[in-house]
Amino acid sequence: MTNFDCEKFQMTLLPSVYGVVFILALVGNLLALWLFVVRKRKDWHTGVVLSCNLAVSDLLYVLTLPLLILYYSWGKTWIFGEALCKTERFLFACNLYVSVFFIMAISVNRCVALKWPFFARSHVKPAQVKIISVVIWIVVAAISCPVFTFASVCEDGNKTLCVSFDNNQRGESLHINVFGCFVPFLVTFTSYCVVIHVVLRNATISTLEKREVALLVVSVLVLYSISFLPYNILMICHL
């Protein structure tokens, strides 16, 4: 696919895709936060803590989409200045990878609870998971810092582009994609493989329940792959 075909594809498809994602994700995550804060405030176990952080990160990610919708609708022309370009690119990357890391944390939490239940009950507490959540936010912010540093507005013919990296920062871009997406994906995939293995070997679980768990795990991995991998693969291919 040529650069022209790629840009035409972006400008044709992305505004409508981002528009649908914005509406569905905004409503879904606001509802999720309401459930966590209002309905489950007295039952904040480790899963709820991680899920609440995931909802917050998804909501922050969604709030960066209107600018992108306008950007691609106007033929990849950025009119909001370099400061807002840097801010938007940083928030987009940071919130995207925070979501990836919390999905990873949720998968690891489920894996540990099933594989080592006594350890999980004794050592994995909501307070500890809250600390881990803060660490995730800090780590992802640090990983995403190069985006804020190198993001810039540049001229391309009659267009003004807002780019995260130029051709001189390929190493930084590859670093973010590998550690921000592919490493967490491998951890998530491995964790759910362990979950399936434990469930399939459990004689007290019926065959139907095993199939349901396996279907749920496969669905999560497929949704993860569809939601996050294409963007990062395209970013690497574009280097």
Describe this structure in words.
This protein has 239 residues and is mostly helical. The protein has a single domain, classed as Rhodopsin 7-helix transmembrane proteins (Rhopdopsin 7-helix transmembrane proteins), CATH 1.20.1070. It has helices at residues 3-39, 46-62, 65-73, 82-115, 117-123, 126-150, 170-201, 207-237, and strands at 152-156, 159-163. A two-stranded antiparallel ribbon has the order 1-2. Strand 1 (152-156) and strand 2 (159-163) form a beta hairpin. Helix 6 (126-150) runs antiparallel to helix 7 (170-201) and helix 7 runs antiparallel to helix 8. The longest helix is centred in the first third of the chain and has 37 residues, at 3-39. It is elongated and about 65 Å long.
Number of helices: 8
Shape: elongated
The run of helices and strands is HHHHHHEEHH
Radius of gyration: 20 Å
What structural class do helix, strand and pairing data support?
A: mainly alpha
Helix content: over 70%
Mean pLDDT, nearest integer? 83
